[in-house]
Design brief:
The chain is built from six helices and ten strands. The chain is α/β, with parallel strands linked by helices and about 230 residues long. The protein has a six-stranded mixed β-sheet, sandwiched between helices. Strands 2-3 form a two-stranded antiparallel sheet. It has a two-stranded antiparallel sheet with strand order 7-8. The radius of gyration is 19 Å and the shape is globular. The two termini are about 35 Å apart.
């Protein structure tokens, strides 16, 4: 609890990954991938409960072995490739409705480098400012002001139209992208908007070295190197 608000932590981990089979429980530096998120979330000073939502019994078993609650199996209709990411979160809140949570914090297992400090930092920023939603972001490594579309004749058109083209990165506005690590939202607000990205959404900035999102096998190797560099594994 923080500032008198009950806060639910949830990790959404669907089975059936096509890019990397068994991705969410694949080993990363001695822990299953989902174990890194569970470990940091359990260290949070503010989460009143941590629940893993999954349709996969193997994922749920691993989650329990690492200390997360698994009070239900996610319905199959909420585990399809085209299921919006917010739907399993709202299902979790509704399934635990008698417990009356004020905020829900989503942490994706594919962001293993996020720390307890990032989780609690995003919660603090959101609640101290009275925001309805705060998500973690990182500064874009490639500015969209340098990006172009190409037509069938290879003609290039800027994605962002500018009066003049800046050649120095320092002259460009800073741009940020969601990194998938932490999503904090008021439960009633999220039920109403059914989206984390609205004009009311605010950003919690994380460094690039903790913002890696695992999507393919190469990402496992990169994240293991980053974990070693940070001294989190030998």
């Amino acid at each position: 609890m923080y500032k008198g608000k009950r806060i639910l932590g949830t990790i959404s981990a669907r089975g059936g990954s096509k890019g990397v089979p068994g991705k969410n429980i694949r080993d990363l530096g001695g822990l299953p991938l989902i174990g890194w998120t569970i470990r940091e979330a359990r260290c949070s000073a503010y989460l009143d409960r941590l629940v893993v939502s999954s349709d996969d019994e193997g994922i749920l078993a691993v989650a329990r072995s690492h200390g997360a609650d698994t009070p239900f199996v996610r319905p199959a209709e909420l585990a399809r490739d085209d299921t919006p990411g917010v739907d399993p979160v709202l299902h979790t809140v509704e399934a635990l409705a008698p417990e009356q949570y004020d905020y829900v914090v989503l942490m994706q297992p594919t962001s293993p480098l996020r720390t307890k400090a990032d989780i609690d930092g995003a919660i603090e920023l959101c609640l101290e400012n009275g925001w309805p939603c705060c998500i973690s972001v990182t500064e874009a490594d490639k500015s969209p002001y340098y990006m172009f579309q190409m037509d069938e004749n290879a003609r290039m058109t800027p994605v962002i139209r500018q009066d003049s083209f800046h050649t120095r990165r320092q002259d460009l506005p800073r741009t940020f992208a969601p990194n998938g690590a932490v999503y904090v939202a008021k439960c009633d607000w999220l039920a109403r908007t059914r989206s984390y990205l609205t004009p009311e959404t605010r950003g919690y900035v994380m460094p690039r070295e903790r913002s890696w999102d695992i999507d393919e096998l190469l990402d496992f190797d990169i994240c293991e190197l980053l974990l070693k560099r940070a001294g989190r594994i030998a």
